[in-house]
């Protein structure tokens, strides 16, 4: 499959509208995420390895906010536990339609169910591994505690939650340094200053990052025994929380 280049914000927009996971974004998504999220490919591979480590026989593995199913495919190709099912959920119709085709073209063994739903309303049951790879940051802040508590309740003992997020920082100097370095990363990947600045405006009220300590506090409050940051590249990090 040829990868389409993301040029959504390449020309000057007269009216700035909030970022949405619509057809246009879904069409260029692999290019957009690869050029925008430092360490993305390493994270996808790492999540497959962790899913294999924690998947328990006869349980569900969830990919919440699956987009085109990159996490689903990585888990599917790695998990060896018997009789697991991957449940991949996204509320964007454009993403789910394309994910269906991509998952069909992959013939690894683990069965996959794809659902177009709001993850805040999806039941989570009999789970050993739950992944939210850059999804929690798009959920309204006042709904995040309830979502993580629901995931905790749906996990079996020994199960894990993996959450990857863009981070913010309490002190202004650190925050500015990471934002600036991420900007350099995007420029190095061919985005112009105008593209970067227009996308930043579109994301402003849509992607709300939190601090690392806010994430650990939420995992603890939900009941998780322990949480670790297992990956970080610039201001993009991934956590694993243990039930
Ligand atoms: N409430 C919600 N319910 C369901 N889906 C949602 C919700 N809110 C946002 N989404 C979905 O979460 C996804 C976030 S992208 C995930 C990348 C993927 N995990 C990857 O590893 O390639 C991250 C990014 O673009 O930075 C989008 O597909 C949204 O439609
Ligand atoms: O592009 C950015 O600035 C980001 O923070 C990451 C991102 C990647 C893909 C969709 C939305 C946000």
Automatic annotation (TrEMBL):
Record's keyword annotation contains Zinc: no
Domain (Methyltransferase) ranges: 63-159
EC number: 2.1.3.-
S-adenosyl-L-methionine found in the keyword field: yes
Residues at which S-adenosyl-L-methionine binds: 40, 65-67, 90-91, 118-119, 133, 200
Pfam families: Methyltransf_25
GO process terms (BP): tRNA wobble uridine modification
Record keywords, A-Z: S-adenosyl-L-methionine, Transferase
Enzyme class: transferase
Transmembrane segments: none
GO molecular function terms attached to this record: carboxyl- or carbamoyltransferase activity; S-adenosyl-L-methionine binding
Superkingdom, taxonomy of origin: Bacteria
Gene3D superfamilies: Vaccinia Virus protein VP39
Catalytic reactions on record: prephenate + S-adenosyl-L-methionine = carboxy-S-adenosyl-L-methionine + 3-phenylpyruvate + H2O
Family the entry assigns: Belongs to the class I-like SAM-binding methyltransferase superfamily. Cx-SAM synthase family.
Subunit organization: Homodimer.
PANTHER family: CARBOXY-S-ADENOSYL-L-METHIONINE SYNTHASE, TRANS-ACONITATE 2-METHYLTRANSFERASE-RELATED
Protein purpose: Catalyzes the conversion of S-adenosyl-L-methionine (SAM) to carboxy-S-adenosyl-L-methionine (Cx-SAM).
Protein name: Carboxy-S-adenosyl-L-methionine synthase
Source species: Methylophaga frappieri (strain ATCC BAA-2434 / DSM 25690 / JAM7)
């Amino acid at each position: 499959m040829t990868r389409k280049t993301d040029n959504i914000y390449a020309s000057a927009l007269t009216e700035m509208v909030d970022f949405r996971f619509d057809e246009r974004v879904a069409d260029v998504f692999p290019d957009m995420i690869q050029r925008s999220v430092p360490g993305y490919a390493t994270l996808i591979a790492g999540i497959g390895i962790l899913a294999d480590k924690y998947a328990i026989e006869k349980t569900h593995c969830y990919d919440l906010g699956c987009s085109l199913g990159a996490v689903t495919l990585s888990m599917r190709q790695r998990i060896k536990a018997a009789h697991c099912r991957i449940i991949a959920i996204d509320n964007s119709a454009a993403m789910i339609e394309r994910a269906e085709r991509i998952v069909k073209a992959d013939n690894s063994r683990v069965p996959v169910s794809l659902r177009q739903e709001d993850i805040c309303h999806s039941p989570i049951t009999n789970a050993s591994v739950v992944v939210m790879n850059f999804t929690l940051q798009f959920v309204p802040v006042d709904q995040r505690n309830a979502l993580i508590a629901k995931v905790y309740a749906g996990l079996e003992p020994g199960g894990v939650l993996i959450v990857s997020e863009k981070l913010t920082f309490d002190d202004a100097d650190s925050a500015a340094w990471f934002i600036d370095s991420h900007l350099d990363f995007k420029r190095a990947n061919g985005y112009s200053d105008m593209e970067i600045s227009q996308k930043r405006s579109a994301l402003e009220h849509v992607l709300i990052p939190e601090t690392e300590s806010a994430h650990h506090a939420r995992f603890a409050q939900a009941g998780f025994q322990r949480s670790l940051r297992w990956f970080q590249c610039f201001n993009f990090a991934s956590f694993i929380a243990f039930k």
